[in-house]
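User: I'm putting together a teaching handout on how multi-component assemblies are represented. Below are the sequence lines for each component of a complex, exactly as they appear in our records. Could you produce the 3D structure of the whole assembly as structure tokens, so the students can see both representations side by side? Please keep the chain order the same as the input.
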Amino acid sequence: MRAILTAAALSVALVQGVALFAQGNVPELAFDANTDVVRTPPNIYLGEVAGVGRTSQGRIFVYTRTGHPYATLGDNRTFYRGGSRLFEFDASGKFVRELGQDVYGFNTAFGLRVDPQDNVWTIDQSASQVVKFDKEGRLLLVLGRKPEAINVRPAAAGAAPSGEEGGGGGRAGGGRAGGAPAPPPGSGIPGSTFSQPTDVAWDRAGNIYIADGVGTTNRIAKFDKDGKFIRQWGSTGSGPGQFNGVKALAIDAQGNVYAADLGNKRIQVFDGDGMFKSQFAGIGVPTALCITSGPTQFLYVSHVGDQSGMDDATIYKVQLDGKVIGHFGSAGKLAKEFGVANSIDCRSENDLLIGEMSNWRVQRVTLRK
Amino acid sequence: MKRCLGVAFAACMLVGLLQPGTQVSAQNRATATNVPVIPHEAVPDFFKNPPGIYTGENMGIATNSKGNVYIYHRAYETRLFEYSPQGTFIREIGRNNYGFAFAHSVRVDAQDNIWAVDEGTDMLVKFAPDGRVLMTIGRREDPVRMLANMPGAGTFHGRNEKYKFGRETDVAFDQQGNIFVSDGYFDARVVKYDKNGRFVKAVGTRGNGNLQFNTPHSIATDFQGNVYVGDRGNQRVQVLDNDLNWKANYPNVGNPWAVCVSGGPGPKNPGKQYLYVSNSWPDSAPAAAAEFTGEIYKMELDGTIIGKFGRGGKAVGEFATTHQMDCRDPDVIYTAEINDWRSQKIRLKPAARSGSSTN
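Assistant: Of course. Below is the structure of the complete assembly, with chains in the same order as your input.
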């Protein structure tokens, strides 16, 4: 059965193969931009904006790498803390408050999403956790466990990440039958033990999909709305259903899952059970995804060609079938330029918020009709 | 100390003093001779901190057009303080921002924006006068990817990347707003960016030839756009034109830890510009070096020495490892000093006659 599925997937890939190459001349979309979107009080600073999202009321949440990650010295576990903060702004950009002060898992901000019920989800790279808060900042759900200690001096390159020895958490949970063939590399541990997760998305039933991630695993993990593990798919590689870094997720109204396959420079599309449906390229190095609402949905994809944010970047607007409609913006530090766009909020199709890493800011993009 | 027996005492002491710090650079006697002495006085207790506010190692100091003074220092955390022209503490800027980890220098540009140079995060952070962040250059290493390098024992690498520094040391601006960075401990170069932070050019490799550097530690520009680089390890100030072509070396003023060109960052004014160069007392304050280091030279822009003032030491008016200077007014020098955790305001008096007494 597995072989048949793979063959079917491959044939789909071949049919779609043309789309994997450059998509010809992509028109530039006219747009305006404002970099003075959110304002913090004195001595509160945005750092690298890993995630930005808006609620249905227009409130803006930002998860940012700011301050410093600290590792303690002299204890048996090298405990680490700090380095990221969660801020709330009103619709006009005025600072409202900080949420999640001093929580255990805020270390290296990697993303933020607001779900349809206006809950705020933070994704943290080094805590390897996805945390759900309601919009008042109350903790509702924690997925993944922060490694107990940070591996200050990795024993050897390629060694498995240390951490869970004392925990007995997710690692023991999923359970493969003894004697079963080893899973393909990068397929991870069933359950909620993540390795540098990058993103979260939901289908209409409220099921939770986690992109996991850019560490040692290359999979998408699915949980029900209460956080019960349902299934996972994906492994390391470049074939259909394989990833080289799952950097972002988005789900359309039909429940199709769009995954940004960073290293393979493509978007892969799956159904909600993980069945490969199609793939397309021509969108550079896909780093952030967002699907608009409304009767005709579009996908925004940020391309990040260099980590300085100065040489190679743009944002593509794409039809759900993979056809690139146009692109806007380039790399740089001025308005209408993007410095490592790691997050896109597209609650409104022509009014976007872009979270930028190297430019330490949120930029508002208004596409001209 | 036992190992000192049978060895020349002074040499042994020097070795002993140099061992604890890895950053101590060899400091050499300046070769200039018959230099007239400029009388000077320090303003006592000029900088006044409220109770509970302390500066640590004062690494950087700069004034803005209104005479306010910024001090960038290493305390419990690296912090940036602002003082009034009277030396009164006004406020802190940049508290806990992502670009502050280990202070190195601070500069103010022609629009009174404040630029913090941080060798811990390898970043420049540009603050508006009100303290908002306007621009950053360089990108702090991803904390997750840096784990393999902890606890931070880096070495010279000379990677020479457009938008990443190797413990950069200082920043300067020309009249067009171009940005010049001395970079640094792990690179050996000068980098030029346009006013929007876009890379223009980089020159320099490690060595002691022209356009080679051995810890370019401090940088300044004149109104013509020439660039003065304190090439500390090579015991010279290296002068480049605005396109970073080599122009001259000023080799006779010791190891330039700090360079400063008077007149401020602009706009251009008719005042005559001078170059100040500090042959600083090394940073672990070795006693043996105090008697031949610590003085600051006042020079014409062409390298002609006008005079010198100060010496290594912790008394008022002595300099306890000058790490940066501000010389917007050529007769008022602010010094940021590592040892004794302080900054001083120095007033220069009219130049003494040649051959006057030494201090």
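A couple of points students might notice: Chain B has one domain: 37-147+166-348. The first helix of chain B runs from residue 9 to 18.
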